[in-house]
């Protein structure tokens, strides 16, 4: 737990005190969020070249513009020659020279960005999932149920799946907060079906595919088979609907002929 906290400190921006978002690597080897760097430059009278993702907060921008933006030390009004941009690093408290391009000269620290993203995923995975049916204080969930779309502790799972009822047949799964809909299961191997055998015109699982009965058969993924069959049915339905008026007219004519014949 302590090591995780120490790691989290290394992944926090020194300006916004939150985890880095699109971190930029400064020449002094420290990092800062892109948006935070833009706001720091604005506070010191520089106008960074802002992308769509690095727009400063409107209230701060208005305040800076009203306070006489563009008159920072070393710059004369209407100066033609470009000035180098000095950035006060919030980590080492030194003024870092960014050159004439300012933030445009900095590289995005993609390695740090990936580390932050993986850390976020680790925190989400390691977070305890609590039972959704316990009375306070809640116990940690130990089982999940795809049919009920809920997570339970051991006692609550037994309580909501009483013996002798249909719910008792629900199979427990690991607890989770996002329940994926249960797919169709192969009746032979109790595995989820993933492919469609065109020759047999049936759904098959991974174990079915390796059997000799499907050796020379045409097998495609379920999604491909679904899209092909759906397209075929759509065309057939469109043809039927377009011919509906013609068929109704023919039926009416046949009915008139039958009446005439009976008379």
- How does the helix and strand content classify structurally? alpha+beta
Mean pLDDT rating: 78
Low-confidence stretches: 48-56, 63-81
* Main beta-sheet strand count, sense and barrel state: 3 strands, antiparallel
- The CATH topology of the largest domain is given as Herpes Virus-1
CATH superfamily of the largest domain: Zinc/RING finger domain, C3HC4 (zinc finger)
CATH-level-2 architecture of the largest domain: 2-Layer Sandwich
Number of domains: 3
Main features:
about 260 residues; alpha+beta; Herpes Virus-1; Double Stranded RNA Binding Domain; 3-stranded antiparallel beta sheet; 11 strands; extended
What does this structure look like?
Residues 181-222 form the B box-type domain. It is found in: Cytoplasm, Cytoskeleton. One of its GO terms (cellular component) is axon cytoplasm. One of its GO terms (molecular function) is zinc ion binding. With 263 residues, the chain is an alpha+beta fold. It folds into 3 domains: 1-46 and 84-126, 2-Layer Sandwich (Herpes Virus-1), CATH 3.30.40; 128-180, 30s Ribosomal Protein S14, Chain N (Irregular), CATH 4.10.830; 193-262, Double Stranded RNA Binding Domain. 37% of the residues lie in helices and 12% in strands. The protein has 8 helices and 11 strands. It has helices at residues 2-10, 34-43, 58-66, 110-126, 154-160, 206-209, 222-242, 244-262; strands at 23-25, 31-33, 86-88, 95-97, 107-108, 143-145, 150-152, 172-173, 195-197, 202-204, 219-221. The chain has a 3-stranded antiparallel β-sheet. The longest helix is centred in the C-terminal third of the chain and has 21 residues, at 222-242. The N and C termini lie far apart (96 Å). The model is unreliable at 48-56 and 63-81 (pLDDT under 50).
């Amino acid at each position: 737990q302590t090591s995780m906290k120490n790691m989290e400190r290394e992944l926090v921006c020194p300006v916004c005190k939150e985890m880095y978002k699109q971190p930029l690597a400064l020449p002094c080897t420290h990092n800062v969020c892109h948006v935070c760097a833009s706001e720091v430059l604005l506070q010191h009278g520089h106008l960074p070249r802002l992308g769509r993702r690095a727009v400063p907060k409107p209230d701060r921008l208005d305040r800076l513009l009203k306070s006489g933006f563009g008159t920072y030390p070393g710059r004369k009004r209407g100066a033609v020659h470009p000035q180098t941009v000095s950035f006060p690093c919030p980590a080492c408290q030194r003024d870092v020279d960014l050159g004439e391009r300012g933030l445009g000269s900095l590289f995005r620290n993609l390695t740090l960005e990936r580390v932050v993203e993986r850390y976020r995923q680790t925190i989400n995975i390691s977070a305890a999932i609590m039972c959704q049916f316990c009375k306070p204080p809640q116990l940690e969930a130990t089982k999940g149920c795809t049919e009920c779309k809920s997570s339970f502790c051991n006692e609550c799972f037994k309580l909501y799946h009483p013996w002798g009822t249909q719910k008792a047949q629900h199979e427990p799964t690991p607890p989770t907060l996002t329940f994926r809909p249960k797919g169709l299961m192969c009746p032979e191997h109790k595995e989820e079906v993933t492919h469609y055998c065109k020759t047999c015109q049936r759904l098959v699982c991974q174990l079915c595919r390796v059997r000799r009965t499907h050796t020379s058969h045409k097998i495609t993924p379920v999604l491909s088979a679904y899209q092909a069959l759906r397209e075929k049915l759509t065309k057939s339905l469109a043809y039927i609907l377009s011919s509906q008026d013609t068929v109704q007219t023919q039926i009416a004519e046949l009915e008139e002929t039958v009446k005439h014949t009976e008379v």
